[in-house]
Structures are given as structure tokens and as C-alpha cells.
TrEMBL record:
It comes from the Archaea. This is CRISPR-associated endoribonuclease Cas2. It comes from Vulcanisaeta moutnovskia (strain 768-28). It holds the Pfam family CRISPR_Cas2. InterPro entries: CRISPR_associated_Cas2, Virulence_VapD/CRISPR_Cas2. CRISPR (clustered regularly interspaced short palindromic repeat), is an adaptive immune system that provides protection against mobile genetic elements (viruses, transposable elements and conjugative plasmids). CRISPR clusters contain sequences complementary to antecedent mobile elements and target invading nucleic acids. CRISPR clusters are transcribed and processed into CRISPR RNA (crRNA). Functions as a ssRNA-specific endoribonuclease. Involved in the integration of spacer DNA into the CRISPR cassette. Keywords: Antiviral defense, Endonuclease, Hydrolase, Magnesium, Metal-binding, Nuclease. The gene is cas2. The lineage of its organism: Archaea, Thermoproteota, Thermoprotei, Thermoproteales, Thermoproteaceae.
Amino acid sequence: MYVIVSYDISDDRRRFEIMSRLKAMGYVRVQRSLYMARGGSALAKDTARALTRLMGREYSVVILIIDGQTLNNAIKLGTANLSIISEPMVI
């Protein structure tokens, strides 16, 4: 399972805060306002709680939970990259 987060936020500071929070939660950037992480409903709910604290009511965030097959069937154009590192990185 994967969690996809897309947002439409015009305020630079808010957008940066949300981007930073998503990265801290393990999301990888797919496109400018599209992030993806391995996880299910628990991660999606945690993400919703975290982003609700950071965003204003005037902004839009969509959080989707999809299975691996749906991700594999996605149509990718241009430089879109929907791959996620399957194993945690050890530094």
C-alpha cells in the first residue's frame, strides 16, 4: 500500500512547512506538489492530522491510499518517477 499526498498551497511558507513535514514523515517527492510513501490508513490518518495543524482552511490537500497494482498501472509521462526505495536506507 502507498499513501499519495497532493496539495495546492499558494503561500510559500506554508508550502515549505508542509513539504518539510511530509519529508520528515518518510514521503518522497514525485512532483512539485505530489508526495508518496509506503503505508496504509494509519499513515494517511497521521499525515492528515499533521497537515491539518500546518495548513489554513483556504488551501487544498488530497490524501489517497492506493495499492501497489494501482501504482504499477499508473500512466507516467515525461520525467514522472513513481518508484520508492523498497528498503530503508542505512547510513
